[in-house]
Amino acid sequence: MRPAFAVGLVFAGCCSNVIFLELLARKHPGCGNIVTFAQFLFIAVEGFLFEADLGRKPPAIPIRYYVIMVTMFFTVSVVNNYALNLNIAMPLHMIFRSGSLIANMILGIIILKKRYSIFKYTSIALVSVGIFICTFMSAKQVTSQSRLSENDGFQAFVWWLLGIGALTFALLMSARMGIFQETLYKQFGKHSKEALFYNHALPLPGFIFLASDIYDHAVLFNKSELYQVPGTGLTMPIMWFYLLMNVITQYVCIRGVFILTTECASLTVTLVVTLRKFVSLIFSILYFQNPFTLWHWLGTLFVFIGTLMYTEVWNNLGTTKSQPQKDDKKN
């Protein structure tokens, strides 16, 4: 029952989270910092109350390791959200972040000296081609949709290139953080809830450097039209409502993934998260009418099939947590 409940949380939380993020980004594309801050603050407060026991529970993993992990996690979160301000459409944002398998494999080979089967190399090639197709077609849209002067069109393309660079950096940094977490968990054991708390609590002072931008967007949020919250009779600026729902759904999403990691095999978790991304992408295209050509669909299909091939879902669909997983040739 718990795995089914967790899957429901992942799909309901993560998919609706993407919707509210896009609603925020469409109105104020540069709101990534205030969104990140609100998410971090909410999860940090919840963790301080229920995981850290008001600071009375000592961490199982030394703080110095969390400082390293937090530096990477904070950087990834801020850069990913800020990329939306650099001419990056939400569908491309989701597709590009689906390339985490590529980054994980590359860094796994370089750092952990892992070796993979030909089947997995083929799956990674499919994911790479899919992302390249979507990225290339999005680049053509950026230049063709700018009907201003040639200089303005070039400027829009340069900003888009910076956005792609930001997403690439965040992808590699996220993969490096995953490897760092893997080595920590092998040494100290798995403490996912604790890591979730410290990853969100320790970076909070870093938002001081973003305080001006956060304040500016808070003022903009205050000026948005009023919205009556259904069933409560309360009215509030609609942008604050979107942010509140984004934070809540982000928490639901993270909790669902946490339950899955404790109840299911990692293969199942990867499959559920991949399917969730695909559903979010389809909904974003249909509901928000984001430009999506036949080439984009082809690229998305390559990414989706490549990801399923990597997880070997057809051979291992019935794998349970107690069974050994046939993953890499060398772990």
From TrEMBL:
Alphabetically ordered keywords of this record: Membrane, Sugar transport, Transmembrane, Transmembrane helix, Transport
The membrane-topology field of this record reads: Multi-pass membrane protein
- Which protein, by its recorded name, is this? Solute carrier family 35 member B4
Look up and give the organism this protein is from.
Answer: Daubentonia madagascariensis
Q: Where are the transmembrane segments?
A: 32-51, 63-83, 124-142, 154-175, 196-215, 235-254, 266-288, 294-313
Q: Where in the cell is it found?
A: Endomembrane system
Q: A Pfam family in this protein?
A: UAA
Per the record, the similarity remark reads: Belongs to the nucleotide-sugar transporter family. SLC35B subfamily.
Per the record, what is one GO cellular component? endomembrane system
Q: Which InterPro entries match?
A: SCL35B1-4/HUT1
